[in-house]
Amino acid sequence: MTDPDASRGGPPAEPRRGQGKPVRERVSSADQPSNRAEPLVRVGASQVSEAETVFTRSLMRTQGRLALACVLSFVVVVASVTFVISRVPELHDLSIGGVPLPWLIQAYGFYPIIIIYAVVFAVAATRTERRFNALVEHE
Question: Whole-angstrom distance between the N-terminal and C-terminal Cα of the chain?
């Protein structure tokens, strides 16, 4: 890009509205991972106690067990509902508004199950984190 004012040593002319393209500026970070020799500085408490590390690992294990229990029980419940739909022939004879009941259950019956599991997991995870915070605050 050539600027007539820049060749005379003066400051570059600012683009005016409606005249040509605006000047593009490239912004880049001065902190690139390859240039950084020292580790990042932590904000807040710089010392992590051994008890806090133990409590944090315990929280992670508890949350993992909770998630695994919710997923496994959810799969069992959904498989059970699917099994009942496919193995109970009397359900196929029932219809609501001309739509067979198993179709309605498959279309809309799983959403309440999903919502119930989501709420149960969120409440249990929140309770676990509150217990963790109570343990850490006492330390």
Answer: 63
The whole-angstrom distance between residue 85's C-alpha and the CA centroid of its chain comes to 33
Residues of the chain with pLDDT under 50: none
3-state secondary structure of 96: strand
If one counts every other C-beta atom within 10 angstroms of the C-beta of residue 32, the result is 8
The pLDDT tens digits for 60-94 are 999 999 999 999 999 999 999 999 988 888 888 88
Instruction: State which H helix or E strand residue 95 sits in.
Output: strand 95-96
Spatial contact of 131 and 99, defined as CB atoms under 8 Å apart: no
Phi-psi sector, 129: left (phi>0), alpha (psi -120 to 50), beta: alpha
Enter the tokens of residue 99: 């739509």
- Domain residue spans in the chain? 50-138
Nearest Cα to Cα of residue 58 among 128, 124, 123, 122:
128
Q: For residues 62 and 54, is the Cβ–Cβ distance under 8 A?
A: no
116: tokens are 């119930």
CA distance 16 to 119: 57
